[in-house]
């Protein structure tokens, strides 16, 4: 992602990790925090000129392709991925993160508050699909 560079740098750059530099799990990071970190990361590398909506969208689509490859020949998988190796789950997490980070950056560049837009969309969907009529089949 990001031309071979990870967008948030290493965990120490992000202010995370323990004293031994190990990655923390379960860190609660908000969309606005991610947006700021991505903006700072791009600015520090003079990459802002490359972060047009089109370029970010196309990069995100590429990452969605990489995410799709993970599931391509597995058929249906159980919730929680109980039969997956830890390395496979870690790889999945990395690809999901790539998609999320491009989405957050794209929203930011387009001037969209992604958290607000998502919250409004959930409300809109609740009206459109009330609980008693939400059956898909």
Task: Give the SSE layout.
Elements: H1 31-44, H2 53-71, H3 86-109, H4 114-128
Helix pairs in contact: 1-3, 2-3
Please state the average pLDDT score.
85
Class from helix and strand fractions: mainly alpha
| Apparent shape | globular
Order of helices and strands: HHHH
**Percent of residues in beta strands:** under 5%
Overview of the structural elements:
With 137 residues, this protein is mainly alpha-helical. Helices cover 53% and strands 0% of the residues. The chain is built from 4 helices and no strands. The radius of gyration is 18 Å and the shape is globular. The N and C termini lie far apart (38 Å).
Keywords:
137 residues; mainly alpha; 53% helix; globular
Summarize the structure.
The chain is mainly α and 137 residues long. It has helices at 31-44, 53-71, 86-109, 114-128.
């Amino acid at each position: 992602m990001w031309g071979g560079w990870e967008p948030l740098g290493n965990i120490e750059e992000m202010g995370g990790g323990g004293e031994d530099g190990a990655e923390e799990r379960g860190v609660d990071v908000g969309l606005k925090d991610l947006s700021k970190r991505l903006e700072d990361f791009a600015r520090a590398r003079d990459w802002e000129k490359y972060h047009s909506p089109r370029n970010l969208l196309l990069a995100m689509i590429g990452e969605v392709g990489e995410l799709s490859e993970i599931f391509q020949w597995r058929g249906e998988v159980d919730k929680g991925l109980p039969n997956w190796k830890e390395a496979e789950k870690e790889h999945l997490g990395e690809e999901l993160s790539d998609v999320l980070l491009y989405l957050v950056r794209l929203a930011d560049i387009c001037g969209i508050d992604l958290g607000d837009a998502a919250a409004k969309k959930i409300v809109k969907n609740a009206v459109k699909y009330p609980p008693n009529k939400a059956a898909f089949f």
